[in-house]
Amino acid sequence: MNKNPTRRRFLVTTGTSLLASTPAFAQIAAPARVRNISSFSAQSWQPYFSSLRNGAILVDTLSRALHFWSEDQAIYKLYPSSIPLSEEMTRRGRTSIVRKVIGPTWRPTPSMLRRNPDLPRVVGPGPENPLGTHALYLSWQYFRIHGTQDERKIGRRSSSGCIGLYNRNIAELFSLTKVGTQVVLI
């Protein structure tokens, strides 16, 4: 890089120095940071499960992360997730996987239809399906861990109650879990 002074370099340096010293520019130059990124880290399974029989999934709604441990403890996975839009839609507690479906069919819940009566009544497998490519059905009616076609939702409050994962992550989790896998949402 040429370090000889040029008119352009002088004007840019001088102008930036003058503007940076004004309070208005300082506010523009250093806006407050708002992050929409999960600040999650590895967890231990022992505080949440008495054993890893059938494997275990912990969904941490605060950090927006899903943790998976295999029954033999050989596999630990950590995935970013989407969570319900509001506290009222968020269910916490113990459940389990009762069904696994590749290419799930989506149907809006009664509460979704009350909020938006124009929703389609059924969406089959494919790129328009809100459940993505795979779904893990929980023992709680209408609650699932599933993929999403809209990857902007991951790491955000964006669902009507379900836990969403990137399609590539739900495919991997799907292959690791079985019917009977324990699930805890905190």
Please provide a written account of the structure.
The structure is a single chain. By secondary structure, the chain is of the alpha/beta class. A hairpin with a 4-residue loop joins strand 1 and strand 2. It has a domain of 130 residues: L,D-transpeptidase catalytic domain-like (Beta Barrel), CATH 2.40.440.
Highlighted features:
single chain, 186 residues, alpha/beta, L,D-transpeptidase catalytic domain-like, eight-stranded mixed sheet, two-stranded parallel ribbon
Layout of helices and strands:
Layout: H1 7-20, H2 23-29, E1 56-60, E2 65-69, E3 76-80, E4 83-84, E5 93-102, H3 110-115, E6 134-138, E7 144-148, E8 157-159, E9 163-166, H4 167-176, E10 182-185
Task: Briefly say what this structure is.
By secondary structure, the protein is α/β, with parallel strands linked by helices.
Order of helices and strands: HHEEEEEHEEEEHE
Q: Determine and state the CATH class of the domain at 56-185.
A: Mainly Beta
User: Roughly how many Å apart are the termini?
Assistant: 54 Å
Rg over C-alpha atoms, rounded to the nearest angstrom: 23 Å
CATH T-level topology of the domain at 56-185: L,D-transpeptidase catalytic domain-like
Q: How many E strands?
A: 10
Spell out the CATH superfamily of the domain at 56-185.
L,D-transpeptidase catalytic domain-like
CATH hierarchy: architecture of the domain at 56-185:
Beta Barrel
Secondary structure class reads alpha/beta
Biggest sheet, spatial arrangement of strands? 3-2-1-10-5-6-7-9
